[in-house]
Amino acid sequence: MTKTDTHALLFTDLAEIARTLGHAHRLMLLEHIAQGERSVERLAELTDLTVANASQHLQHLRRAGFVETRRDGKRVLYRLGSGPIEAMLASLRGYADHMRSEIRQLAADPNNAEGRHDSISREELLERIRAGDITLLDVRSAEEYALGHLPGALNIPAEELEQRLSELPPKQDVVAYCRGPYCVLSTNAAALLGARNFRVLRLAAGFPDWKAAGLSIEV
Question: Which stretches does DSSP call E strand in 2-150?
């Protein structure tokens, strides 16, 4: 086989990967699976797909190695396959952020921009965790929290936050996080806490990006 043939095969493989990922429903399913292991029924519910439709897309992802399965009694659970899949999803989000004007406008919105004055980077957060002077607040659902969360994080789902403010230490900075840079749950939580005179920061990246960076998580 010539060098040209090898090169052509490589790009054929890349094109096949791109074809597998070239459907919004498959990317949505991968984003939810990146939060933690889930059944096809739950994935269908989260993505507003029928079970049959979700199952069909999951089979495509499985054949390409993006997801793996295991049996738990009568249920089949899906998890991410081996390899840097979470990092790949983060790269896709980053490229979309660069190319699509709608997302660039969202990033420029003071309520969402990663560079806003009340955001905190992963590196800064690691320093604050080591110092022990913050409260980590996970505002995702209890289900997502149980599948994996940042070490020591307190889980108060966004819709329960206003009724459970007494659970937050009033004299510590609060760092809220959710599913990623375009998830509004932590943005809304930061606004609510700020209005109640809490010192609050928002993690610029969410749980999947933290996990993709190889940082410690708790289950």
Answer: 38-39, 67-72, 75-80, 119-120, 134-138
Smallest CA-to-CA distance from 190 within 90, 114, 107, 102 is with 114
Q: Does the CA dihedral 157-155-218-132 come out positive or negative?
A: positive
Q: Does the pLDDT at position 115 exceed 50?
A: no
Alpha-carbon dihedral angle through residues 139, 143, 145, 146, given to the nearest 10 degrees: 160
Could you tell me which of 144, 142, 138, 141 has the C-alpha nearest to residue 37? 144
What domain range includes position 136?
112-212
Using the 3D structure, point to which of 64, 80, 96 is the last residue of a domain: 80
Domain count, the chain: 2
pLDDT in tens, 34-59: 988 999 999 999 999 999 999 999 99
pLDDT, tens digit, 9 for 90 and up, residues 73-114: 889 999 999 988 988 888 888 777 776 655 455 555 545 444
Average pLDDT, the chain: 87
Are both 62 and 130 inside the same structural domain?
no
The set of catalytic residues is 178
